[in-house]
Structures are given as structure tokens and as C-alpha cells.
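Here we describe the complex-level prediction in full. Unlike the single-chain runs in Section 2.1, the three entities below were treated as one system.
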Amino acid sequence: MRKRSNKLIAVLLAATIIGGAMTGCGSNVEPKPTEPSSSEVKETPGSVEPSSSEEVEESLDPVHFVVWIAQAAGSDDKIVEKAFNELEELKELNVTVEFKTTPAGDKFDQKLDLALAAKEDVDIVLGDFGANAYARMRNGAYADISELLDTKYTSLRDTLLPDHWTNVTIDGGIYGVPSYKESSTHAMFLVQQSVVDKYNLDLSNRTVLDLTDVLEALKDDGRATFMLKYSAMSYLRDAMAEINHIKLNRWITSATYEDPRTVVNFYETDDWKELCLQTREWYENGLIASDILTKENFTAETNDENLCGLIYTQGDYLSLYAQKAARGMDLAELQISPDNYTVAGNNYNACVTTTCDDIDRAVAFIELLFTNSNVKNMITYGIEGMHYDLVNGQVDWTNYPDHATAWATSNTKIGNVLISYPPVGYPEEGYALYAEYAKTARKSPTTGFVLDTSNITNEINAVKAVEIEYVNMLACGVVEDVEATIAEMNQKMYDNGLQTIIDEAQKQLDAWWAAK
Amino acid sequence: MMNKIKSNQPILTIVLGILTLVAVLPLVLIVIVSFSSTESISLNGFTFFPSSWSLEGWQYVSKYSGQIVQSYIITIYETVVGTILMLLITSMFAYALSRSNWMLTPFLSIFLLITMLFSGGMVSQYIIRTNVYHLKDNLLVLVIPGAMSVYNCLIMRTFIKSNVPESLIDAAKMDGAGEMYLYFKVILPLMKPCLAALGFMAAVGHWNEWQTSMLYISDPDKASLQLLLMRIENSMQYLQNNMENLSIAEIKALQTAPSDSMRMAILCITMGPILIAYPFFQKYFVKGITVGSVKG
Amino acid sequence: MNYTRSMRIKAFGENMWKNKALLLLILPGFVLIVLFSYIPMGGLVLAFKEFNYTKGIWKSDWVGFDNIKFLFMSGDTAWRMIRNTIGYYVLFRVVGTIANVSLAIALNECRHKYFAKFSQTIMIMPTFISFIAISFIVSGLLADNGYVNNILQSLGFEKIQFYIEPKYWPAILTLVHVWKETGYGSVIYLSALAGMDQEMFEAADIDGANRWQKIRYLTLPMLSSTIAIMTLLSLGNMMHSSTGLFYQVTRNIGALYPATQTLDTYVLNALSEGGSTFGITAGVTFIQSVVGCFMTVVVNLIVRKISPEHSLF
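The structure predicted for the assembly as a whole is:
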């Protein structure tokens, strides 16, 4: 009796599951056929190009784009959208857009991923950021626009330096347009000018190791020192590593400026050991917060002029002005790593999805953001007189304290910052300084090399976990026996496959050098 | 004998008293912090005796009050409809499942169990709910999927089996009662403690629910209360976690928001209604009900 | 007796017809489960695929077990996190159930009804406190200059560095878990107690049984089926752990990993910098489900041998 009823159960269950799975199977919306990009370079009758004004202007079919922007939703989103659609440039292109922003507090990445997976209405994504953006590019969410860039939209291609396209180029195809930001950065601490004056501090020529006198001055003045919480102390590692090493993907696969052909593990170098020993000394002398392990965040100290210690940021030397304006404090810059030319700074990308109906026109729209000041300024700052005032060609927000909750973009995330208005307080030459800055920065010999991690994802994930386990502890100085712990850390990383990673990286690097 | 019984009570009362105190102290702290000023928090941290009081946290949250009435309506709808649906549909299933002389029960048990153990994942659910069922931006998505709860069903089945004697059911059947009558007039009343307990938990689940709303609801008029509050909380969390990489607007936001007291105020708003509503459910399962049963 | 096939089918058909009202009762629930649990279940295959947006779930490439290989890269780490996950499950389950049942019985026995009701209402509140607030409170207690260390100092003992020594954390985490969940967890046992037949207790009173005897021989056995079902239901989630507890309260401090690293926090860290996570999360969930399923089936079989009425199926 038991056997028969079990059989019956098994059959009924199998039927339900299979039936269910098959229904789910058939319900997936068919993807738009992705043919090779050559078929997308259609001859749209007389496209209107900013750069080719000799062509005959004929009428274009109206196109509507749903544009996802990686920014917090603001109260004036619809108003700006309406004004945006009234712009001459958009009317010429016969494009109307609909902005989709994410309510503050929601996870943009998660929502975008799900919308893309369900093939919802997403045509263009602006400000797609970081590792998640690159993952979306690798996994077929975005369209390859390399052909369009090389033929019709060369002006878009030429707004960026060739090196800047490195991170968005996968197997010869280009899947996003990086927003032009600075092309060199360094790590820095911003410290209150009043402290500098009071203790006569000389802020030049320092590295992250030479901070003892600054820290003592801050402690003496009753302030916080490093305002980095436990999990952010790894920024000290970055500042240290940038001095001599080049990050080829993660610091476990670094090259040095001295020897750019060999892959080394940064955590086995003397630089790392020196840093950990130094932070241990600071911790023992009370120069690092004694409750660094449990302190939730330094918001209170950061916002208080009397308690504010070292504000960390990574940027160019114009960052100082932005921070001063934002915080309303008189700050001085303490640079702790050299000016390094970087292409990784452009982590914000404008992308066209594979489900977009008219990829050609979408790229034309993106080109506007990079070549046309009117379009760029409106999408960055909103509407003049409603969200900002223009004072001597610089943007002034004093009369608009709530502008950030009305329309919330950031200048560097979308489009070409060089054609937009600078904020009030920037030096006269404004953005022209970026170009100068790029010229004088130290350029890494391995610029253009991208590590292909598809064969070593598992090892990387495993080693990443070990890094997280040890790096913050060592960087904040709470570990007593520094050398033993570093040895332990490296041993664990090798147990988790570090050698495989290094070998693979070396192999790829050798091949890259050989091809040069 | 009466003396013996009475002498146990003081110890019991003291123990319960201590446990209550341990449970309530953090709650009191949370309320106090929500009324503390930002200076007090930055100087002294979380303390029962802040150096200065302020309504900043509450004022900040009330800036969003434009939406509050609407979101209260949505949340009440979701909680009431969702809980009633769950109790009804799940208990019907549980009752049928408890009939030991029905041949389909082994199959159904396994049918339920598999869903508890294996799930298609969020991506698959999202794709099917939006593309196939068209539940995107539809208030039904808040109440329909949870209307049949496997976990609760199995608990209810156990409850029925251990607390409803077969003799009762047999007697009713001999009197000519059909299954429907049996279910509505006999079983449900006997299940009151179980329904009250599970109903309370389901109501709390619906009241606190925000993730489904975040993913599926984009119309601001359909946002639930918890979604509103969680958005404020999450955006503050994001700002505090990424302090080194903020844009100008975000730096300003972090400067002006009374972050800690505001978060505690949000917590109070979440817990308050539950504290008020709980006694109504509680009376069903803190003892006071005598079960009238069949003699013999 | 020999049961022929046709006799069996006939018996089944008759049983179905006799109980047709029951079919009606299960209909809404059945449909809902098929719609919302079984149809999306096809997504399980994501665990073995590398998700591509253009190809969708069904046409993406198969990668076999690649998605979860990183968990087992190092034997030591894998062992540590699995040991912690299962260990804490057992610890929380045992201590938690004892606490829940004891509290339920204590509240039930209390003569002062208003006090019991008030007390119970307060005790369910910790469940709703988010882990962010809890980690504030815990660090306020355990930090270098926190309450506990101040008391230790005033009593003449040395300070304890709680956030560097892993050995205190199993106790700390269990305490936090019990504090947070017991009030709420006792509700279901209270409702079971409230549904119990009072006649037996009256009979026991007449026979001269005292309070403890009544609890031991009447209350506990009658609660046993609820205890059994709650435990069996929890087995499915054995490999899941609360990230609020193990990640936020412990502040993800590496020194504590030997006692606090579980499968979920390990994966959370590995995926923390972003990138494609669909396949990996699906793969990890799959493993958790398989283990949970296996444990549920095995334990259920054991329970069925001992006392069939307590088993899940």
C-alpha cells in the first residue's frame, strides 16, 4: 500500500513541477535579436549631426527614450524633464526623453539589474557606476557602439582621450561612454586651516607614513584624527600602495613603477609592512581612535568645525575647492600620494541597452551630453533661476538651499564636465587645469592593460574574503604582532589560490608587453 | 497546598520582572535617543540622560509627512486584507491537510515542503510577476503572493490535530454536518488562539514589509509607510557608509540631517502601532479561554 | 489480502469523491502555490549558469558548479564557516526553544494576569528593533570604555577586549539572539497552551498533582507536537544565518571570524564590491536549500520512527 501511494505521489509531484517549470520557461519574453553591430549603422535619412553640418536636413521619425539616471529622485524631476524636452537640440534630433531616477534609499543597482533581466523599458542608462556597470557590460545588457563611434559619431569618440576607453572595451567592442572626469588623482587629507596655522604645519612633501606631527597636533587640539571608520581604514593601504605600485586589478596583482613587467603581491612587500607597523605605533600612542573597532561613523565629528580631523578623499587638486564649498569650512590640502595618471577614475558610464529600439539615435543623444553645453548644463544643474544662479559663468547655489533635493545630479557623473559651468569658488582657469594636470601626472607604463579575470573568478572571490578579513585590522593598528599576522594573511591567501591568480596575471602581462 | 502554590509566585514574578526590564531598557533608550539633540549624541553617545533634548529627529521625519496619510491608508489596506486572506486560505488548506483519512495528504505535504526548501530566486520571481502576471505597480502584489503561507499552514495543521478531538468532528458529522459547515462553524472557532498568534505575526510582517513595495511599486501614491521610512533610513545609511566618496549635494545632506536621533525616531514610529495593536491579539492566547468540549 | 490494481484505483476514486469538499478547500491555496512558488522555480537553474541579460535565464551558458567553487577554495575557510553556520544553528535552536517554551509556560502559570499580559507585550518588542540599533547597544556595552568594562575595572579585574577575542562571541551572539527572539518566539507556544483541553488539568488537580508535576507530565507532552513542528520547520533554514547578527553586530571584524564567520557573511564579503552576482547568489542558495532539504528529510524519518504523529510528513 505504501509503495503504490508513494509512486502516485511521485508522479503527481513530477507533473506539477514539470508543468510549472515549462510554463515559466515559455513565459520569458523573447530578447531583441542582437545582430552584429554593423546592422545597426542604418542610414537614417539625413541624420542631424553637430559635427557634419553640410548634410541635408531631412525629417526624422520621433523617438522616445526611457533614460535611467543613477541619481536620487528629486521633487522637480518632471519639471526638469519637461524643460529638457523643450531644448532646441533635442527637438532637432526629434527625441523625447523620460527620466527615471531612483528614490533615495533604494538600491539603483538592484533595480536596474531586475529591470534589465525582465526586459523592461530601459533604453539609456546614465551614470552607471563601478564593478556593477562593468558586469552589466560583460553580461550582455548593453549594446556595442564601437562601429557608431568610429563612423558617425567621431566627435563623441574624440572628446575622450584614447586611454579612457580602456575599461569599457571588451573583446574589441565598446559598451559605454565613460564620463570625462579628471585624468589623474592622488589621495589626500583635508585639514582645518585653523589647525595648520596654530601649529605651523608644513603640509608639503608627505606620504601617508609622515603624519605623526599632524596627528599629534589634532589630538592636542581635542579633535578626531583619522575620521575613517574601521572598514574604511583600507584607504590608508591604497594611499601607501599608490606610491610605488600599480594596481593591475587588485593590489594582490600589482606591478611597480620600477619594474612594470613583474606581478607582485603588494601584501608581501616592505611598503605594506611599514604601513602596518606605523599604524600600530600610532594606535599605541593614542593617535588613532581607541574605539576604532566599534565606532559606527564619524558623522558628528566631520560636521563639527571644532572636532573635525582629517577628511579623506581621493581626487585632483580641484577637489579641495569642491569640498570647501560643500562643507563651508576653510580647509587645507595634505597630499599623501603622488599624482597618478589614471583611467580608472572615469567609473561613471553612459550606456545604451540592447533592448533600445534606435541605438543610433541613442548614441546621438549621448553625443549631445558630451559636446553641447546647453544640454550638459541642464542635465547637470537643472533650470537657471529655479535651481541655480549664474554668477560670472559660475554656478551659485546660495539662493537655493534645497536645490539638491529638487534635482540631484553630480557634475562628474554624466556627460563631459569640461563643457559645463564650474561651481563658484573654482579658480579662474576652471576646467582647463584638468588638461594641465593630466600632462604633469605620472603615467603608469601599464596604462591600457586590463586583466581578464574570467578564468580566476573563484580564486579572486576567495582571496578577496581573506583580504577583507585582515586588511582593515592591520591598517587600523589594533593587531599586536604585526609581522606574524601579515605572514598569516599571506599564507591564507596562498591557500585560497593566490598563486594561480599571480601566474595568470603574469601570463597576461607578458603577452601584453610582447604585443607592444 | 494553597500556601505551596502561592509561594511559587513571588519567585516567578521577580524573574518575569527582571526579564521585562531587560527587554524594556533598550526600548526606553531608543525613545530617549530619538529626543536627544545632535550635540548630546556626538558628545556623549547614546545615553539615558542626554545633555540636551531636541525634537530635531522627529521634525526631520515629519518633513516627509506629506505622504504619510496616503501611505498609512495603503499600509492598513495591505495589513488587513493580507492578514485576513492569509488566515482564510491557509487555514482552509490546513484543515483539509489535517484529515488523516484523506488519501491526498501525503502528496500535499510534500507539495508544500518542496516550496519551503527550494525557491526560484528573486530574479525569476520578478520576471514572472512583472511579465506574466502583470503585477508591476499593482497593489495586489502586496497581498496575493503571501495569501498562502506554507509555514503557517503546517503549524495550523499541527494545532488542529492536537487540539481538536476526532470525537468532536465525528459527533458533528453524525449530526449531518458537511465539510464546509464543519470548517466554518466548528474548526475555526476552536482555532482562535492559533489564528490570533499567526494572524498577529502575519499582520506584523505586512506592516513592516517594504522590500516588495520597493521592487514592484513605482507610483508614489501606492508607497507603504514602511517603504517611506526605510528609504529615509537607507539613504542615511548610504551617506554614512560612503562618507569618503560623496558628491557636493550628498555632503550637504549629511551635514544637515540629524542622523542618529532621526533613525531612532523612525524606529519608534515603526514599533509604536505594534505595541498598541498587540493587546487586541493577545487576549486570544494568554489563557482565559475555556474550551467547551465533548464529554465522553 | 491481495489488492489488485483496479481495486486500488477504485478506492482512491471513492476517497476523492467522498472528500470532494476538501478539494474545494485546498483549491485557492493550491493555485497560489503553483503560481507563486512552482512556476518561478525554474529560476533554480541560474545556480548553474552565467547569467546574460540578452539571453535571459533559459538561454544563458551553463557553467556547472563554477558559481560555488570559491566557497571551497581553501579547506580551512570552508570548514570554519560551515562549522560556525551549523554550530550556531544547533546552539540557537536548543537554547532558543528552551527559552521560548519556558517563557510561555512561565507566563501561562502566572497568577497575576495583567502583569503577565503587560510583561509579555513588552517582551515581544525587541524583535522589531533593527540590528543597526542593536549593534549600537552592544558596542555601548562591550567597547573598551563600555559599561561591561567599566564594571570589570571597578571590581578590580582587567578590561576585556571583546572585539578582538573571538572566544566570547558564541555566548554574546546567543544572548543577543535570545534577548531579541524569545518574546516573539514564545507567542506560538502560548497559543498552543491556550488551546489545550482544561479537563485534564482539573483531573490532575483532583488527583493531587503539584505544579511541577503538571508541567512535566501534562503540559510538556502536549506541547511536544508544537515543539516538534517548529524544529522540523526550522531545519530547512539550517544553512541560513542572520546577516544582521553576524555581520552588523560583529562589525565584520576579521579577528572575530573564527567564531563569527558563517556562510552568508562569507558570501556577502566576497560579493561586496559588486559585479555580476546572480549566478553566485543562486548557487549559494541552492546549496543551502539542498542541505536544508536533506536535513529535513533525514530528521523527519527519525522522528517518524520514534513517534509518527509528530512528523512533518
